[in-house]
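Trying the structure run again after the queue cleared.
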Amino acid sequence: MGEFFSILCSVFWAGAIIFYRLAGEKFPPKLLNLYKNLISTSLFVIVCLFAGEKLVPNGFEWIDLVLLGISGFLGITLSDTFLFMSINRIGASLVGIIEAVYLPFVFILSAVFFGENIEYKVYVGASLIVFAIVISSIDLEQSKHLPFKNLVSGIIYGMLAMFFTAFSIVMIKKPFIVGYSVLEKYPALWSTTARMALALCFLILMYFFSSEKNFFGRMKQRSFWHYVVPGSVSGGFLSMGIWIIGMKLITSVSVGAVLNQLAVVFIIVFAALFLRERITIKKAFSLILAVIGGLIVIL
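Done. C-alpha cells:
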C-alpha cells in the first residue's frame, strides 16, 4: 500500500512542478513558498477539524514537536525555496537532474546514520530510474540557451533542496536523537499538519525580514489563481499528505525514495502536454527505463 501512495505522490508532485514553473515567472521563490505553505497548511487544518484529530495526540512529547519543526524547516522552508530557485533557473525539463540527486542522498543518510540494509533489487531499480532521469533531463540542445552561471547555480540550489528533503524525512522516519520514530508514533494527518504549520512559521519570519512587502497585493494577480493556488493544492496539500502517508506505510525509506523518483517521468509527460516541450526518442527511452525500474522495486 505504501508503494501505491509513493507513486500517486509522484503524479501530484509532477503536476505541481508545472504550476510552479509557470508561477515562478511572476512570483519570487520565498513568496511562492509562503503562499504554497499557507494554502496547503490551511487545507490540512480543515481536514484535521473534520477528521476530529486531537490538538494534542496521545503520548505527545515536546521533543517530538521540536524534531518535526526541524524537519519542516529543512524539508519545506529551505528545501522548497531552493527548489523554486532551481526551477526558475533551469526550467521544468531540466529539473529531473535535481530529482535524481534525492535518491543517493536518501541511501547515504539511511545507511550512514541508521544502518539500513538496502536490498539488491532496490539498487537495480534505482540505477535504472536514475539512468532514465539523467537521460531524459540532460538535453544539450535545450541547455545551450541557458547562461552557464544560471545552469550551475540552478543545479547547486537543486542539490541543496534534495539533500534537505532527504534528511528531513529520514530523521523523522527513523530514530533520531530519541529512541523511536517520530513519524510512526503519531497519526499521519497530525504529524503532517504539525510539520507544515511549523514550516509556515519559519516562512512568515523569513517574509518579515525580506524586502517583499506586497503579500496581499500579489494575490490579486490572475497568475496567483491560475498557477499558485492549483500548484499549492497539488504539491503542498495532496502530494505532501500522500508522501507522508506513503513513507509511514512503506517498510523501507529507500524503496519509497525510488518510487518517488517516478515523478520525473510524469514531469516529462506533463511538460510536453502543458508546456509544449517535445518528447524526443531519448526521453521516450528514459520513460521505459524508469517504468521497468519502478516495477523491479515493487515486485
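The chain has a mean pLDDT of 82. Worth checking whether this holds up in the mutant runs.
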